[in-house]
Amino acid sequence: MRRQPRDVRSWIVVGIGLGTLGLVLATLGLAWLFARFMGIAGPSALPPTAFPPPALQSDPAGELRDYQAAQRARLEGYAWADREAGRVRIPVARAMTLLATRGAAAFDPLDPPQMPDPRR
Fold it and tell me: Is residue 53 part of a domain?
């Protein structure tokens, strides 16, 4: 069995250091060439612009109340969903009542299935 050498081979350490330095320099050089040929400029010559002032709410509680009222009106009101197709939007409670009264037929398709053309 051989004994482990006492000294570190300095040429290996120096070679790894020089190889790492060469790799870093090559990477920086390629990045510089890429930036030069792609037309990527340095810092912008335009002066920085000021940020717009913050859009603060003048009445947060009132705006929330208005938003919730609009959402409630949409959920609890009637409106056309698709006037051409004759479909309306109805309140959730009314829709649940209609589904409950239809029983098992409540989940049948609204439109009949499209049959393929038999001539094909």
Answer: no
Q: Show the domain range for 91.
A: 77-107
Domain assignment of residue 112, yes or no: no
Looking at the predicted structure, is the pLDDT value of residue 108 above 90?
A: no
pLDDT at 67 over 90: yes
Kindly report the pTM of this predicted structure. Answer: 0.40
Please give the C-alpha separations between residue 25 and each of 14, 30, 35, 40, 96, in angstroms, as whole numbers.
Answer: 16, 9, 15, 20, 72
Tell me the three state secondary structure of residue 111.
coil
**pLDDT at residue 42 above 70?**
no
DSSP string, 12-77: HHHHHHHHHHHHHHHHHHHHHHHHHHHT--SS-SSPPPPPPPP---S-HHHHHHHHHHHHHHHHHS
In a domain, 20, yes or no: yes
DSSP 3-state of 8 = coil
Number of domain units in the chain:
2
The answer on pLDDT for 43 being more than 70 is no
